[in-house]
Amino acid sequence: MKAIKNLGFAILAICSLSYCTNSSKTAEQKDSISQDSSLEVIQDKVEDTVDKQGDDPQLVYDLVESMYSGIAVMKQGSEKGTTAEIKALANKLTAEHTKLTEELQALATKKGWKLPIGESVDDKEKRMKLAEKTGSDYDKAWLSALEDRHKTNIGKLEGAKPTDPDLKVAGEKGLPKIKELLAAIQAVKKSYK
């Protein structure tokens, strides 16, 4: 009987410690989680609307959402990068992508297409995980993340068959720029191998 009582106390202590550990999140962390959940619900509703608008609005939505996240990663690189080369590349990429994003936003506004309100929750989580790295490990991971993002967006643009003439022009203008920026990322990445 005494052993069962002791086992009961042990289980109670473990559960209490587990609760204390889980409830030790700061108010800021709890607010961030709540905001992420709210953002995800809003983004899902906007995405549902975009799905109904067709392929051209969906392409713009996906590209702008990717660029929001990409710009956040680029700005992070300008802060966390360990070399002048990384920081300069981050600043260049931020400026160029901000310009491309503004052009797509203007097109979407002109056409009445819905736009994302920010980066996706998944992309934000990836960016936060990237931020945990330090030193040259961060630099290498940052370059790889941006290389992958640019390759993905190039694939989307090359595979797209827009019917809207303005979107075709924007794609023809934007694709070479994104390829140029990918080449700049890859040139810097070579020096880190």
TrEMBL record:
InterPro entries in alphabetical order: DUF4142
Name of protein: DUF4142 domain-containing protein
Domain of life: Bacteria
Pfam families, per the entry: DUF4142
Residue ranges of every copy of the DUF4142 domain listed in the record: 55-187
